[in-house]
Amino acid sequence: MNKHVSSVLDDAEAGGKDVIRLTDVRRRFGETAALDGVSLNVRRGEILGIIGRSGAGKSTLIRCLNGLERPDSGKIEIEGREITGLSEASLQPLRRRIGMIFQHFNLLSAKTVEENVALPLKIEGWPKAKRLARAAELLELVGLSGKAKAYPSELSGGQKQRVGIARALAANPALLLSDEATSALDPETTRSILALLKDINSKLGLTILLITHEMEVVRNIADRVTVLDAGRIVEEGPVWQVFSRPHAQTTKSLLSGIRPQLPTHIAESLSDNLEEDFVLAIDIAGPAAAGPFLQCLSTEFQNGYRLIHGGVDHICEQPVGRFFIAVGAASAGRLVSFAERLGAQVEVLGHVADHA
Ligand SMILES: Nc1ncnc2c1ncn2[C@@H]1O[C@H](COP(=O)(O)OP(=O)(O)OP(=O)(O)O)[C@@H](O)[C@H]1O
What we know:
Elements: H1 3-14, E1 18-29, E2 32-43, E3 47-52, H2 58-65, E4 73-78, E5 81-82, H3 88-95, E6 98-102, H4 113-123, H5 128-141, H6 157-170, E7 175-179, H7 187-204, E8 207-211, H8 215-221, E9 224-229, E10 232-238, H9 239-244, H10 249-255, H11 264-269, E11 277-285, H12 292-301, E12 305-315, E13 318-327, H13 329-341, E14 345-352
Parallel strand pairs: 3-8, 3-9, 6-7, 7-8
Antiparallel strand pairs: 1-2, 1-4, 4-5, 9-10, 11-13, 11-14, 12-13
Bound molecules: adenosine-5'-triphosphate.
Adenosine-5'-triphosphate is lined by residues 29, 32, 34, 52, 54-60.
InterPro entries: AAA+_ATPase, ABC_transporter-like_ATP-bd, ABC_transporter-like_CS, ACT-like_dom_sf, MetN_ABC, MetN_ABC_transporter-like, NIL_domain, P-loop_NTPase
Pfam families: ABC_tran, NIL
GO molecular function: ATP binding
């Protein structure tokens, strides 16, 4: 185990369960409540995703966390120490406990890769030889050992973000805060950066807070997710649960791009004629989704329903099923109760003629 790994683990063992804790944090700008009573915690070693529409309050939350913005009221604690009310000087060492990576990398173009990575250590007063040794160690961790003497302009977007990650880890933070860090990257590069973050999370036990509008990012690497809307938390929980059974309308619409939807031509032909077939959206998560659910349904109802669309996906290794089913009016009530008894959540979307 290298020195960096062991020091992060030592820190992890020394502290409490929550790296960050927010209690009833409020911040207004005139009439706008950017944060309207936000309480959340980021547990040591987890990856927490925060999602929300534009204007939901994500940037304000980040600025409150790194001390650039002060909340009007409420409490923010980093590793058990309250930061609200601290002077700029007392805030500095706590601010260094949070490493940040950004959408546009924020590297210094006139400095080499190793100088960029070593910069936070220079600010901390480390001697040159020591900080270059640490930069080499971190560049190895992010797979860029051969690029120490290169300049940012000579790197691809993915490589620049790897440098950003190495720099964010240099001062040995308790938390890595990722602010839309993959939003400027193509899908393949995004996947490789997410794999690196996941690897660092499991190797170093590093806690990561991901702020993103990309649902795929949260789905791929986060353990838990918090949904912000108009400055409030409207939903939170394990990613597989929230993504398989979103309750808040905001969450449903944020996830509409990555969850199966009723085909548009059928959605547009739905009626409210109770004599026609019922169109149901059925969500089921956990072991029952993996196969038994459809089997049970066909055993119980034989040919009495039609599968319109949907299937089984896997989120955080949990099977998650979403099916759109049409069933005759006479069997609909019985099918809904049967599915609910199996643990599914059922929504009646409308009605279609039986040939649709
Ligand atoms: N300095 C400011 N002055 C006035 N209003 C502000 C200020 N900062 C944020 N707001 C308002 O607070 C609300 C939350 O903004 P914030 O930037 O935190 O949202 P966001 O979720 O980060 O949005 P985006 O995804 O577009 O960056 C918005 O209505 C915004 O217009």
